[in-house]
Amino acid sequence: MPVFDLVVVGCGGGPNESNLSSYLLKAHNALWSDGALALEAGSGYGAISRILADSPTLFAPCDPRSPAEVLSWVRSFVITHGHLDHINGLVLSAGSLRGPPRQVFAAQQTLKDIETVFSDRLWPNLGTWDKEDKTAALLYSPLQLDSTYRPVAAHVSVRALPLNHGHMRCTNAPYDSTAFFVRHDPSAREFLFFGDVQPDRLSREPRTCAVWAAAAPKLPHTLDTIFIECSYPLGRPDAHLYGHLSPTHLAQELAALAREVVAVRRSPAGSPAKKPRLHSTASVPALNGELRDALTGVRVFIIHCKEDLTGEFERPMHTVIAGQVQKLVDDLRLGATIVAAEQGMHISKCQ
Ligand SMILES: [Zn+2]
Ligand SMILES: [Zn+2]
């Protein structure tokens, strides 16, 4: 049985502002008009307008008369980090929201970053930290980065873990992003959603390995769907990844997940490995077949592919990149199915 419905409002990595990271989610047995969760909010009104024109029945049995009606269903937001391509729609729509404040769930630092936009200079101050303030459009709701699942919508909870997303240009200080385990509470089924993320192999303090260690015991029965970025195609030099993944690095990350899965299945009670194996992605070539089919039954949706601005590729970038990742994953015999996320896609069997 499907437990979630997810609509891809936007899944590009820029610079096309009409297709930026933005996903609407609800429990499968509820109506969209009963309340939706916005997972990221890069594109908004304009993208919804376009996908409604292409697929008028996308939100069936609800029959929205306008993009504004779809936006009115959003009761809360979950944001991975404060970069504009993940919050643009949230900012632009905030002044039009009616009714009680919408909760914006994110790590404390991400909320502080978002607050700088609502400064009354760049944009009116429409947010509040005060739960008693009913006049604001948005209520900043910090998520702790730990092992606890916290409710973010009807029947939906998230667990947030920190990710590395490169460095800030001026200070060279690390810039953080977030991964979310998104759980359908009644069934306890989950999917895993990554914000922008750099390869662990290029990180001074690898963090994605902890996400894989937390995910491994759940695969594939409790968790069979992963959304993860792959911003660039093959051949992008490491020095020009700017805190993002390329197909080679994503395949290595998935091999690291496969290694965790094998370790869990080998452990006596199927218990999670005590500690994630840091830097484990370094030894990918030494597979010896032990990782074979470790990720069978797992779907990996490729998101956040950057546009091809040079006209080098004949096909859209997300299909080029997904094909490259599938080939590498097949070479490693991991067994995972790689899918290019598409704007307007309705994913109904999202465990
Ligand atoms: Zn980013
Ligand atoms: Zn981004």
CATH architecture: 4-Layer Sandwich
- From the alpha-carbon coordinates, what is the Rg to the nearest angstrom? 19 Å
Major sheet strand order = 6-7-5-4-3-2-1-15
The CATH topology annotation reads as Metallo-beta-lactamase, Chain A
Order of helices and strands: EEEHHEHEHEEEEEEHEHEHEE
Alpha plus pi helix count? 7
Largest sheet: 8 strands, mixed
Distance between the termini: 9 Å
What is the domain total for the residues?
1
In CATH terms, the superfamily is Ribonuclease Z/Hydroxyacylglutathione hydrolase-like
Mean pLDDT: 94
CATH hierarchy class name: Alpha Beta
Extended strand count:
15
> Helical content, roughly?
10-25%
Query: In percent terms, what proportion of residues is strand?
Result: 15-25%
Helix/strand-derived category reads: alpha/beta
Bound small molecules, by name, code or SMILES, are: zinc ion
Low-confidence stretches: 279-286
Shape designation: globular
